[in-house]
Amino acid sequence: MYFPILRGRQFELLALRECITGNLLSERVLPIIEPVKASSTFVKTLDSFIRADRRVSVIRNPHVGSFVKDLKKESNQGIKDAVSALMADQHLISALYVDSHLKSFVEQMKEQGLNRDNLILICNNPDSIGFYENAIGDAIPLYNLIPDKGDFRRRIRPNRVLCEDHFPKQSRNVDYSGIETEFFSNDHLFYSDDGYKGFSDYSVVGDEYSETGFAPYAVAIHIVFFDDKKTLRIAHFVSDSNDDISDPARKFSEAAKKLVDWNQTMRLDTAGIKAFESAYWSQTYPGLGVLKKYSIMHHLELMSRFLDGAKE
């Protein structure tokens, strides 16, 4: 099982929605959404999974963004009501970050009819292991997402899922220029042998979160692919005219040309890759957010194909 963690920003949500409505997502993929903003896109994304009779998980105590504050605004009452109704559906699985408030969250959710056995817990801080033990006791959560480190493995044993951030983050897009491809992950090959029920990551976005965006000097496209040993690598395609922030359409065309040329050999044919190629050949610039959507869609479809073809 693969558990991609994605923030609930517009283009991450649209990537998930287009994957589920386009039947591109394997049943062995269970997305986990950390909502960062109350939006109709969030509501529609959850609804698309329910309509497709597919499971999706929502983090109920997000650590970033303004989602919790947004729901308290009178202007968002309709979204709040819609989210509450959707979260009661059996397809929606509640997830929680393990922190000092975990016990009170678990008790609140128990009052709402949700027990500890139906939770996905994300424990990525060594100091939080004690909070996990105090809140969970002898219960066995549905899944426990942990990093592959000794103290986590020793103290959180049942239904473990290997959770790592594999995206090789650089300070600036232009810093990817000298890196054609690099190692991304082989968790999908060894998680079961290492005693895990599945593996998890933050796709091609990474765990780092920022509220504000900015116009970059360079446009970078990040594409994951399998090498001949089925190790997952990531390729970076970077624009050339990177002296200032002007003409992002030209920057995209430069980066996309490198992707298109590279793919003549690789022959990747996911919906995300086809969307990149279509934008390049039609000389249209879809915007930075859409580029991220295409890359995420490609990653999710690629992993879906791998998992559906993998032997049990």
Taking pLDDT < 50 over at least 5 consecutive residues as the criterion, the unreliable ranges are none
Question: How many DSSP helices?
Answer: 11
- The assigned structural class equals alpha/beta
Amount of beta strand: 15-25%
List how many beta strands DSSP finds.
11
- Strand adjacency order, main sheet: 1-2-3-4-5-6-7-9
Major sheet details = 8 strands, parallel, barrel
Radius of gyration: 20 Å
Distance between the termini: 11 Å
Note down, in words, how this protein is organized.
With 312 residues, this protein is of the alpha/beta class. The strands form two sheets. An eight-stranded parallel beta barrel has the order 1-2-3-4-5-6-7-9. It has a three-stranded antiparallel β-sheet with strand order 8-11-10. β2, α2 and β3 form a beta-alpha-beta unit. The chain is globular, with a radius of gyration of 20 Å. The model has no long low-confidence stretch (mean pLDDT 93).
